[in-house]
Amino acid sequence: MAASDSSSDDSLYPIAVLIDELKNEDVQLRLNSIKKLSTISLALGVDRTRSELIPFLTDTIYDEDEVLLALAEQLGQFTPLVGGPEYVYCLLPPLESLATVEETVVRDKAVESLRHISSQHSPQDLENRFVPLVTRLSSGDWFTSRTSACGLFSVCYGRVNSSVKADLRTHFRNLCQDDTPMVRRAAASKLGEFAKVVELEYLKTDLIPMFVSLAQDEQDSVRLLAVEACVSIASLLQQEDVEQLVMPTLRQCTSDNSWRVRYMVADKFTELQKAVGPEITKAELVGALQSLLKDSEAEVRAAAANKIRDFCQALDPTCREPIIMVNILPYVKELVADPNQHVKAALASVIMGLSPILGKNITIEHLLPLFLSQLKDECPEVRLNIISNLDCVNEVIGIQQLSQSLLPAIVELAEDAKWRVRLAIIEYMPLLAGQLGVQFFDEKLNALCMAWLVDHVYAIREAATLNLKKLVEKFGPEWAQNTVIPKVLAMSNDQNYLHRMTCLFSINVLAQVCGSEVTAQLMLPTVITMASDSVPNVRFNVAKTLQKIGPVLDPGCIQSQVKPVLEKLNADEDVDVKYFASEAMSVISASA
Fold it and tell me: What is the reported pTM?
């Protein structure tokens, strides 16, 4: 008897521990116990999980949001633990409760789990158990349950009989007309996915009226979500039905009083273009794009500008060029001088993509002047976006034409009187080098990069040394040996001590990318020679350089060449030189 009592106690132990932990005051402990639910369930077995654990969880749903979130997530993976698909309906009560809580992330996770387990229900269980849950949620007293219901229609609709389908459509229509804006918003966001599973005849008779109603809602937050549904609905209909049933509403959204609705149209523009097809695009969407590109709100203009390249690319090839030249390019020209920098930056990120579409002659005649204008724009993001995309123009018009047109503008900026403009161009130089290739770079831009090393502004000289490092990373140490290092080392004999110091700063960064051999053979001898410089600032920078390049050099080289120089500098009459020399010696000794 005692033995059977003890085995009964053992079998109750996991659920007793869970109950204790779930009632603990420490949130972290409760959270950990929820995350261990699958282990507890395995210990209990499928029968007791169904008869004890699930009811217990259903009854105790009043906790911190993070605990409920973890529970909602766990339950979505619980099907094998309750005995497989045959018993998956056991998970519906706790998930139904979680789908009604106030915190949005918990409700969303509960809906996600319900959507996941819906496919595991048999058709009979779906009709007898899952659909009644959807019905209860969609007619609940609190808006929280009704918003959750919206996400469940599409996953069960396709597997139920026609009378249940009719009920589901009625419930969804009621949610689209709900008094609470949050519910209508949820219905609008799920209308597109529901449309994909509804039969075509009911799509036209039932769902399109819902779509039209939501697109005319008094709340702009509902209307903008109807735009997203528009994409799904239009892609499901024949062209004449799109023209008749969808386009009037889309036209209305394009000129909506709320900029957020117009923004959503602009943001979804290429998806809409794909959904409505080439004929309606030509007849309707070209005009709509013009309207959005001239919108009074900068956010709308920027979103529309972002879509220009993809929109033009997807136009019917037989009439693409005339449409772009007559209907789109004039608006693009206006946007280049837009007062808002975000609009100009959005345009600059896509405008170069028009080159491959329009070809060499039109690019040279019409687009190059726009690129030049944007390359000189005061906004750095605009300039960066143009420089970042030079390669696609290069492919169309060739390096020769590019160097004649855009390069003078880049050189002009590189020599600008304002040092901040020069600094911006230095930052783009590695990118430009990658776009144009080593040969072109050496011919046209290398001299500029070397000139920056002797600029009268320290920030430019510093940026120029970092620029050298990035260029060597792109073009390799061999290029550095032939092109950069000789010019850098020549600066060690410059009359101006600041330029001699820049030589050392350049060696600091070049050593990192050129490796041990090049550093020891080409650069170290110059550093050692500069240890005898007449200016203390140069001498103590020699000590700092030796410390920096020490990790690159092999131990024999450090012992025979570096340490004697540092010992000499350590006996220097200048206190700063002595200080940096001793610091370098201690760092090098420690790492040896």
Answer: 0.68
3-state secondary structure 296-354: CCHHHHHHHHHCHHHHHHCCCCCCHHHHHHHHHHHHHHHHCCCCCHHHHHHHHHHHCCH
| CA 147 – CA 107 distance, rounded (Å) | 9
Which helix (H) or strand (E) segment holds residue 12: the answer is: helix 2-22
Residue 114 CA to residue 96 CA, distance in Å, equals 8
pLDDT tens digit at each of 592 positions of the chain: 344 343 444 555 656 666 677 667 777 777 777 777 777 778 778 888 888 778 877 876 666 777 788 888 888 888 887 778 888 888 888 888 888 888 888 888 899 998 888 888 888 887 888 888 888 888 888 888 899 888 888 888 888 888 888 888 889 889 888 888 899 989 998 888 888 888 888 888 888 888 888 888 888 888 888 888 888 888 888 878 877 888 888 888 888 888 999 999 999 998 988 888 888 888 888 889 989 999 889 999 999 999 998 998 888 888 888 888 888 889 988 888 888 888 998 988 888 888 888 888 888 888 888 887 887 777 777 877 777 777 777 777 776 777 677 677 777 777 777 787 778 778 778 877 777 777 777 777 778 788 888 888 888 888 888 888 888 888 888 888 888 888 888 888 888 888 898 899 889 888 888 888 888 888 888 888 888 888 889 888 899 998 888 888 888 888 888 888 888 888 888 888 889 888 888 888 776 5
Q: Give me the DSSP letters along 379-432.
A: -HHHHHHHHHTHHHHHHHHHHHHHHHHTHHHHHHHHT-SSHHHHHHHHHHHHHH
Q: Which of 293, 296, 268, 410 is nearest to 346 (CA)?
A: 293
CB of 568 closer than 8 Å to CB of 531: yes
Q: Distance of CA 424 to CAs 306, 339, 427, Å? A: 24, 21, 5
* Of 284, 287, 215, 212, nearest in space to 256 by CA: 215
Q: Residue 196: what are its φ and ψ, rounded to 5°?
A: -70, -20
Q: Residue 341 has which token pair?
A: 């920098």
CA 114 to each of CA 2, 35, 99, 130, 262: distance values in angstroms, whole numbers, following the listed order: 44, 18, 9, 9, 34
Q: Which 8-state DSSP code applies to residue 277? A: -
CA 456 to chain CA centroid, Å, is 39
Buried-exposed string 530-551: b where 16+ CB fall within 10 A, e elsewhere: bbebeeeebbbbbbbbbbbbbe
Whose tokens are 């200080």? That residue is 579
Angle between helix axes 368-375 and 407-414 (nearest 10 degrees) is 10
Q: Which residues contact 585 (CB under 8 A, 6 or more apart)?
A: 563, 566, 567, 570
